[in-house]
Amino acid sequence: MAASMIETCSVADLERLELDLLLDAVKTRYGYDFHDYAKASMIRRVKKYMEQAGINHISELIPLFLHDNRAFYRFVKSLSVVVTEMFRDPDVFKTLREEVIPVLKTYPFIKIWHAGCASGQEVYSMAIMLEEEGILDRCQIYATDFNDDALKLAKKGIYPAEDIELYENNYSLSGGKNKLSDYWVSLYDSIKVNSRLSERVTFANHNLVTDGVFGEMHLVMCRNVLIYFNEQLQDRALTLINDSLCPRGFLCIGRRENLKFSQIRNHLEDVSNRFRIYRKLSS
Predict the structure, then answer these.
(1) Integer Cα distance of 70 and 82 in angstroms
(2) Residue 184, beta-bridge partner list
(3) How far apart are CA 59 and CA 82, in angstroms?
(4) Under DSSP, is residue 272 helix (H, G, I), strand (E, B) or coil?
C-alpha cells in the first residue's frame, strides 16, 4: 500500500510537501514564518530562485539555507516584488486628491504610512500631490518595506529616464496641476526626485507579517501587497493596519485586493469601493 501511495503522489503534492518542509526549516533557523503566504505565489518565487541558483528540487534549498545565511537573505529579498510606478492607477490618486486630501487639510499635522513602499515611486507621487495641495509641510510620510535593497533605491529617489513618459501620462490623468518635470532633476539616463519631497519622508524596515502597530496614521497606503498573502495573513496585516489608523483615518489598498473576508470590514466605511479607499469609523 505504501508503494501505491508513493506512485499516486503527484508532482504538485510533492512540491507542496517540500515547500512546507522548507518553510519549517526557515522558521526554525531564522524566525521568518512564510507559511501563510499564498502557496501558488510562494512556489513561483521559490522556483524562480531555484532557476537562478541552478537547483532542481525545492528540498535542495533546505540544506542551502540552513548553512548559508547569505543565500537565505538573497531569497528573502526576492520575495519582495519591486514593481511600481509614479501615480500608478491614476484614477486612485485622483480620488485621493478629490475625496481624501480635503479632509486631511483640516488636521494641523498629518501622518501617512506607505506600507510595502517598494522602490518608492508611489511615495514620491503622494509627496507631489501633497505639495500641490499646499499641505506637504504639515505632513510626515513613513515609507516601509522589509526589503532593505528596495528601501535603498527608494531613499535615493533615482529612476530610469525611460519611464518618464509613463509617469507624465499617469500624473496628468491623476489631476496633476503642474509639470511633473518640476519635481525632478535630469541626470544622464535617469531622473532624481527633488530633495524637497524626500525631506518629508522617513524610510524604515517594517514587516507586515511579523512586526507590530505603526503609530496613529491619518492615511495608510498598502497597495498590491496583500495579494501575495493567504486570507489568514491578509486579515492579520489588515488588523495591524486598522489598529494603526486614527479614528476616521483612511485606508487605500490595491485594485485587485478586497476586505470582504476581513474582520476589520465592519470598522470601515466606503469612500470609494471601486478604487478600494475606505475610512475608519469613529468607534
Answers:
(1) 20
(2) 193
(3) 26
(4) strand
Q: Find out whether 29 and 66 touch, Cβ atoms under 8 Å.
A: yes
SS3 35: coil
Edge to edge, what strands does the sheet with 158-160 contain? 158-160, 190-193, 184-186
Residue 242 has a CB neighbour count (10 Å cut-off) of: 21
Q: Which of 36-40, 44-48, 244-248, 263-267 has the lowest mean pLDDT?
A: 36-40
Q: Grid coordinates in use for 234?
A: 491578509
Which residue has cell 522558521? 27
Per the structure block, which three cell numbers stand in for 126? Answer: 503622494
| Beta bridge mates, 229 | 37
CA distance 132 to 128: 6
Beta-strand relationship, 184-186 and 190-193 = antiparallel
The helix, strand and coil proportions of the chain, stated in percent and rounded to the nearest 5, come to 50, 20, 30
Note whether 36 and 232 are within 8 A (CB). yes
Query: Model confidence over 218-266: pLDDT tens digits?
Result: 999 999 888 777 778 888 889 999 999 999 999 999 888 888 878 899 9
Which residues have CB under 8 Å from 197's CB, separation 6+? 124, 127, 128, 131, 136, 157, 183
pLDDT tens column, 120-164: 999 999 999 999 999 999 999 999 988 888 899 899 999 999 889
Q: How many CB atoms lie within 10 A of CB 182?
A: 12
54: left (phi over 0), alpha (psi -120 to 50) or beta: left
* 136: Cα separation from own chain's centroid: 22
Q: Mapping DSSP to helix (H, G, I), strand (E, B) and coil, where does residue 112 land?
A: strand
Cβ–Cβ < 8 Å for 264, 236: no
**Orientation angle between helical segments 69-79 and 39-53, nearest 10 degrees:** 130
